[in-house]
Design a protein that fits this description.
By secondary structure, this protein is of the alpha+beta class. It has one domain (about 15-125): Thrombin, subunit H. It has one helix spanning about 100-125; strands at about 15, 20-25, 35-45, 45-50, 60-70, 70-85, 90-95.
Length: about 130
């Protein structure tokens, strides 16, 4: 039996704004291994927009993305770079997950939704 969500467009599902600490690793065209630290800007069911402090991976390239939490490594996934934003103050890369992403949805995407809802509740209590 097919799961109910499988007929929906793959890009379906809201994007949640939450900053998970991340580490992205990739090899440049001349074989140099890059390790970049940063954080997620927003998280979707199939990918994420990330902010990296310095280097950006090449569009069309593959990155090994480690999502971290308080206890260390939370999840490691492989993603393809869809586009990059060379904003000098906040360089960003849009990443699309490759392969199976049930863990991503459970550990990262759904948690980002919970964290965003909690943050929204915190903000609304400060309203006049």
């Amino acid at each position: 039996m097919m799961p109910l969500g499988s007929l929906v467009d793959n890009r379906g599902g809201p994007r949640y704004v939450h900053a998970f600490p991340i580490r992205a690793e990739w090899d440049t065209s001349d074989g140099v291994h890059i390790v970049a630290e940063g954080e997620t800007e927003n998280v979707g069911p199939e990918g994420t927009l990330v902010h990296l402090q310095r280097e950006l991976p090449p569009v069309g390239g593959r990155v090994n993305l480690l999502v971290m939490d308080d206890k260390g490594e939370k999840l490691s996934v492989i993603a393809e770079v869809l586009r990059i934003e060379r904003n000098p103050s906040r360089p960003q890369a849009a990443l699309q997950l490759l392969g199976e992403n049930d863990e991503w949805r459970g550990l990262v995407w759904e948690e980002a939704g919970i964290k965003m809802a909690e943050a929204d509740e915190d903000y609304s209590e400060d309203d006049f």
